[in-house]
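Do me a favour: review this protein, sequence plus structure tokens, and tell me how the chain folds. Record follows.
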Amino acid sequence: MFMTHLECARCEAVYDCETRAHLCECGGPLLVRYDLNRVRESVRPAEFAGREPSLWRYRELLPLRDPDARVSLGEPMTPLLRLHRAGARVGLSRLYMKDEGLLPTGTFKARGAAVGVSRARELGVEALAMPTNGNAGAAWAAYSAAAGIECVIVMPADAPLIHRKECAVTGSTFYLVDGLISDAGKQVAGGVKRHGWYDASTLKEPYRIEGKKTMGLELAEQFQWQLPDVIVYPTGGGVGLIGIHKVFRELRELGWLDRPFPRMVAVQSSGCAPIVRAWEAGRRESEFWTGARTVAFGITVPKALGDFLVLDALYDTNGCAVETSDEEILQAQRLLARSEGTFICPEGAATLAATRKLSQSGWIKPGERVVLLNTGSGLKYPESVSTSPPVLAAGDSLPA
């Protein structure tokens, strides 16, 4: 609708957005650019409230030209929950959580898949392939099935069983690889070269990030276009964080935001923390993390293609990067479930563990508005909770 071109995030080279463009010749990821002057003339922020309560309400800032190409599984506007009890436990009076677990396929990956698959369909793609830690593959498999696009998925052999079943039931062709997502990526790269599949790997196509950025648009609207002070985000590939930062810059250029950006916090596990190490050293890129392993499987990304964009977002917003242990992550998951009734994924729980540390250190002040991004439902990770309830015989009575 208002998309004009693609631009390399590294060298700013310009590409035609009507081609199946992937990476720039320099190796940098491509970002979608819009005619924001025309957007400003066509819509006002107040108008969004009268539209359908889904990510498609922001159509002027999305890359789909033909509405009939849209592939939707009913993506709702996800809730912004006030965490009163959990906030009190970590010393924060205005703590919120945006719960992405209510999206189709149970995670925020549905946002990227909805827009990415829709645009692939518009471009005439018949088959796509991608590596995944699980959730992204499940989402792209579901949306590809709805679009009638062949989908090839490669994931680590120790990916959660539910993710494998999701890919199987939707009819995708999927493989397990004995290794990490980086090893799965090598397999996909070879398949793309041999078979000519559309490469839907993270940031190797420009449109997933456009779906993910709608988290930022929803937050802006839910806070009446007055953004929170801090956003805490679990970071593997970091596409959601990059997307939120991208759309905040677009909103500022549109004149719809008139206060500083929220301080962005990238959270990683101590078992795989390349972004944290790079931020601590003041670097612009991360180094490959050897031996990556964490209970928060979705953020087990040893080296993200868009690591420099994640770090740019942290530096630009005066944010930071924090690591948490697996024990702290599981403790935070239990705390949120018992204090707020929300069973969230380990990746989302990592944000509360990190927020506790930042509150205790004084980096986050008690009265600041803080948003945790929960990226998925805990129901997709049943193995993260161990249970051993007492077993009653049929004739027994419950103890007093």
About this structure: The two ends are 65 Å apart (CA to CA). The chain has a mean pLDDT of 95. The chain has 13 helices and 13 strands. The longest helix spans residues 239-254.
